[in-house]
Write a structure and sequence with these properties.
This protein has seven helices and eight strands, in the order E-H-E-E-E-H-E-E-E-H-E-H-H-H-H. The longest helix has 31 residues. Helices cover 41% and strands 14% of the residues. The radius of gyration is 22 Å and the shape is elongated. Strands 3-2-1-4-5-6-7-8 form an eight-stranded mixed β-sheet, sandwiched between helices. It folds into two domains: 148 residues, Rossmann fold; 95 residues, N-(1-d-carboxylethyl)-l-norvaline Dehydrogenase, domain 2 (Orthogonal Bundle), CATH 1.10.1040.
């Protein structure tokens, strides 16, 4: 399968690496605004504009959400499947392209990290069955977890991922600050953190909730609040109230 990839961010860089290792995919053009790609030693042909003269089966648009429509208008005259990689953006953002789709890897990507594509769920959508099959074939060449989903399901999934990844990471950052302030290593919380996440995979999170918020232990909560900054206090109170309401209404 011959692929064009537009974008040079974290996801695009990891996709190029994966495509270059695949026997089933030929990334025939990598397109970005900069004169040279971020990824050194890449064998993929790099351009600053999409090359209509290069035979291509699928064009993946892996750019920031607010740039998808701009890129789509630049591609309006091509007659190939164009799929963006965003979690919360409608396929309508690819108008006026006729053959539209979504190729959404459900993972947080950082530069200079090792990615095991076998374990990364890839969610796909397309406006017709033949293009859906094309995206499924592409996804299966990278991952063992491929899901055909609706736009509504993808938006729900993206929101769930924000809670599970972005929000949790922010809360862990607060935990890091608190342990550092006390002169303790953050690693002391590692067994607790691992246990928390492992429970969520095998049990209902509602049934295993513990802590001072659930039991309405205001004395303990007040002691915690005295340690926190103004913004952390606001967050602590909001989360505690949400937990209490969930288990006591």
């Amino acid at each position: 399968m011959r692929i064009a990839l537009i974008g040079t961010g974290n996801l695009a860089t990891h996709l190029v690496k994966a495509f270059e290792k695949s026997n089933d995919i030929d990334c025939v053009q990598w397109v970005g605004r900069k004169t040279t790609p971020h990824l050194e030693l890449s064998r993929t042909p790099y351009f600053t504009q999409f090359q209509k003269s290069i035979d291509t089966d699928v064009c993946l648009v892996a750019v920031s959400d607010d740039q998808i429509t701009h890129v789509a208008h630049q591609l309006k005259d091509i007659d190939i499947l164009v799929a963006h990689t965003a979690g919360a953006i409608s396929t309508n953002a690819l108008e006026p392209i006729i053959r539209k789709g979504v190729f959404y890897p459900l993972q947080s990507f950082l530069q200079n990290t090792i990615v095991n594509w076998d374990d990364i769920p890839i969610c796909i959508e397309a406006t017709n069955r033949s293009d859906e099959h094309l995206l499924k074939t592409l996804a299966n060449s990278l991952s063992k977890q491929v899901h055909t989903i609706t736009q509504s399901q993808r938006l729900h999934l993206h929101a769930a991922a924000v809670f599970a990844n972005n929000f949790c990471n922010h809360l862990l950052g607060i935990s890091q600050n608190l342990t550092e302030k006390s002169g303790l290593p953050f690693a002391i919380l590692e067994p607790l953190i691992r246990e928390t996440f492992e429970r969520s995979f095998s049990q209902s999170t509602l049934s295993v909730q513990t802590g001072p918020a659930k039991r309405n232990d205001l004395k303990t909560q007040d002691k915690h609040l005295a340690l926190l900054s103004e913004k952390e206090v606001e967050l602590y109170r909001s989360l505690s109230q949400t937990i209490f309401n969930t288990h006591n209404t």
